[in-house]
Amino acid sequence: MKRIVINTEACDGCGICQLVCSAYKAGQWHPALSRIKIKPLQEFGLNLPVVCMHCTYPPCEIFCVMNLIYKEPDTAYTLRHEEICIGCRACEIACPFSAAVWDPINEVVVNCDLCGGNPECVNYCPTGALVFMDISEAADKKRREAAGVQILELSRGFLE
Amino acid sequence: MKDYPGKILEINLSTGSISSRAVEIDLIEKYLGGIGFNARILYDEIPAGTEPLSEENVLVFAAGTLVGTPFPTASRTEASAKSPLTSQFGTSNSGAFFGIQLKTAGYDALVVKGKSLTPVYVAISDEEVQILDAAFLWGKECWATVDILEKKHYGAEIALIGPAGENLVRFASIENGRYDGWGRTGLGAVMGSKNLKAIAVKGTRGRKVHDSAALLEAVRKGQQLIKSASSYIAFTEYGTLNASIPYGKNKAISAHNFTLGTLPDWKEIGGRQIVDKYGSRHVACQSCIIACGHWTEIKEGKYAGLKIKDLEITPVMSFGATVGLNTEAIIKASEICQRYGVDMVSAGGVLGFAIELYKKGIITTEEVGFELDFGDDEAAFKLLHQVIDREGIGDILAEGTKRAAEQFANADRYAIHIKGMEIPMIDPRGRWSTWSLGMLTNIRGGDHLRCRNPVENLRFNDKDEEYMKERFGFKKPMYDRLDMPEDLKSQAIDLESDTVDIAVMSKWAEDLINLYNSVGICIRPPVMEKVGPTIIAEACRAFIGVDISAADLMKSSERTWNLIKLFNLREGEKVDASKFPRRFYEEDIDGNILNEEKIQAVLEKYYLVRGWDGRTGKPDSNTLVRLNLVDDLG
Fold it and tell me: Which of B140, B315, B468, B483 could form a disulfide with B334 if both were Cys (CB 3.0 to 4.6 A apart)?
């Protein structure tokens, strides 16, 4: 189960991912048409990339009045039949990450489809803030890092 | 592409009329965008001899051609008007996210004319352009204004002035959001004179591109090129601060208003390790893969809790060296400049000038109201606020060093400016290079940002008695990879004697930087080293769909440069204005002193390389015919 894993620490807010996404997905160049969004949090000195997390039990799927959102059986991607979307934007409200994106050209809501398994935003990300990897692997990496920090803290306490 | 989608938006504040016209493809082929558009528009629309702070002055913002694409560092917008500081072509370049919003709102350029009777701001959202009342914003500092406008216009990028611009301080800046700005040449005062507080622009449309796949290919190539630059890693870590220690070592910093050459504790004050101490995360402009900016925070001490973006060489030099402040005070000074909207370089220059006058006894404690000294941050900030509010002696200093020096007896010697604009950071007495000549030949006065050897090696400081050469200092692969026409390259760089011909390189560097300012990319060294006209031409072809070659690009850049020169000559630029301040020829630092005649010889050689008259520095008619500018000779 490969997903886009976000490393907030590394994001410098250059916005290349947004432009590349809009070019590939909308055929036009504009951050607003992108399915990945960067939210600058200047008070924390952070930039937060927001993209569909492909939840296991997606709230948007439950909320969709047209029942057009579905989980792809093989990859478990959250996809949608955009052609029957009525643009009610209920899924936008339901999404806990605000990752459902209003497409102003076609007037429907869209979300990241991971480019069918080769996300272009990740290919162009210059800092490694976006990584396409297996989520269990990513969780494992995080656990190890956290454990490493804790062991370091403990050993420091022990030495003192 | 037959119909280029960009438009030029024109707002007349006197009449309240708003109109837009399509950008003709001919204009793009000839002038590309950015500074090219600005030069053309200002040359056509500003009558000769216009008073810069009057209704007739025209302020133009033009986003570079490639802004709005992920081409590395394509984020930059050029703002131009007749400068209140130099009374010549005033222009300044800024990155961040204003350009992409302007571009995606459908506009390549925004032209502001006339003068409003009451304070107003302009809100642009695609075709919807409004001139709105700004009485509630007038007098507010920049960050507070941005906070208010961001709430009113969600997602908009804001160009605005602070109290300095409102008070017509001649070196006021236009701020670009909270932390960036069009600093130099006093464009903020132009905006203030028009009673225009801010421009909030937001685009919601996408830009169609002639050939998306080819553009993405050019983007990928551009990214690889920049990543392979020798200075790339250093720049991603420390940004422009890499240069501060080499210049300190060469005794080439502006220490204490250009009297010392270096400071004993320069490494602690301005060395690049201050990034490790105060900086945290990197922060990029639109589409940048270098991200030289840092979030900066002071954790303890007098200025604890202060947070800004950036720890850059410009404030470090102008406040750290010229005024002699410590690192924390430098960060505070940057904050003041950003919040009140003043150009950091000129502000530092004016403070250094005032402090030296005080120390020489030309101005007294009674006139200032308090004591001044190099390194005294509280006094410096008090004086800076007086300048911003035009109170007391600040009212004179707000006119810039050149005009202020006329108000005091014998003060001329201490005013460090070229053509009226304060010189930034580098002292050509300590290190003579293409960069130093560029300060003389710069179309906007004493400034360092329009000419720089693309392959400058700061490790070396070979002094050439004739001022004609600088050390190349790299191996042959660097020479081979440099994107420059072969015949010109062999003229500019001599591998055998390992030297660079300053006059020839100056012309190339100026045209190259002018090209960057036209297409909207950044002049950070990793870009200059690797991104030449070839890859830019590839991206432009894919973007606009016009068959344009690298040589065409360089020619249109040269055309722009010559047009600006014509503008300056029309505004009365004198040939003897291209001189360093007297101090550089008459006072030495550790034996380093400039020779006026020899520098004049380099300058004359440069004029000839440009195809200008060697003696008067005026563009030759042959050159103007070659550049299709002959109609503009007037």
Answer: B315
- A15 closest CB neighbour out of B208, B219, B287: B287
Contact A14 B207 (CB under 8 A): no
Number of H helices, E strands in chain A: 5, 8
Grade residue B84 by pLDDT with cuts at 50, 70 and 90: very high
Number of structural domains (chain B) is 3
Strand residue runs (E) in B284-387: 293-297, 307-309
pLDDT given for residue B3 in this prediction: 56
* Nearest-CA distance A51 → chain B (Å): 18
- Mark whether B384 and B507 lie in a shared domain: no
| Domain identity same for B362 and B492 | no
B353 token code pair: 């000038």
Sign of CA dihedral B101, B105, B111, B112: negative
| pLDDT single digits (tens) B481-523 | 888 888 988 888 888 888 889 999 999 999 999 999 999 999 8
pLDDT at B200: 93
Which tokens in the block code for residue A85?
Answer: 């979307």
Pair B222, B96 in one domain = no
> Hey, are the CB atoms on A14 and B287 less than 8 Å from each other?
yes
Residues lower than pLDDT 70 in chain A = 157-160
Domain that holds residue B531: 434-633
In this structure, are B292 and B399 located in the same domain? yes
Q: Which of B174, B202, B230 is the last residue of a domain?
A: B202
Which is nearest to B240 in space by CA: B524, B516, B527? Answer: B524
Q: Where are the alpha helices (DSSP H) in B520-590?
A: 525-530, 533-544, 550-570, 582-586
**pLDDT computed for residue B633 by the predictor:** 60
The 10s digit of each residue's pLDDT in B42-74 is 999 999 889 999 999 999 999 998 888 889 998
pLDDT of residue B145 exceeding 90: yes
Is B210 contained in some domain?
no
A2-159 has CATH 3.30.70.20 classification: yes
Q: Who among B207, B282, B285 is closest to A29 (CB)?
A: B207
A12 to B284: CB separation less than 8 angstroms, yes or no: yes
Q: What is the pLDDT of residue A158?
A: 67
Cα–Cα nearest to B398, from B157, B407, B466, B334: B407
- What is the CATH number for B224? 1.10.569.10
- Averaged over B563-574, what is the pLDDT? 89
Task: Take residue B521 and report the two structure tokens written for it.
Answer: 């990319």
Cβ burial of B154 (10 Å; 0-12, 13-18, 19+) is: exposed
Q: Which residues of B touch A13 (CB under 8 A)?
A: 283-284
Q: Which helix (H) or strand (E) holds B479?
A: helix B476-481
Q: Rounded to whole angstroms, how far apart are CA atoms B311 and B296?
A: 7
B434-463 pLDDT per residue, tens = 888 889 899 888 888 888 888 888 888 888
B467 and B352 part of one domain: no
- Statement: residue B540 has pLDDT above 80: yes
| DSSP tag of B424 | P
Put simply, the chain B residues between 212 and 271 with a CB less than 8 A from any chain A CB are 212, 215-216, 219-220, 223
Does residue B163 surpass a pLDDT of 90?
yes
Chain A contact set for B307 (CB, 8 A): 43, 45
Task: Provide the pLDDT confidence category of residue B110 given band limits of 50, 70 and 90.
Answer: very high
In terms of Cβ atoms closer than 10 Å to its own Cβ (0-12, 13-18, 19+), residue B481 is: middle
pLDDT at B632 over 80: no
Beta bridge partners of A133: A3
Dihedrals phi, psi of B429, to nearest 5 degrees: -65, -35
Report how far residue A14's alpha carbon sits from residue B166's, in angstroms, rounded to the nearest whole number: 32
Per-domain residue ranges for chain A? 2-159
Which phi and psi angles does B198 have, rounded to 5°? -155, 160
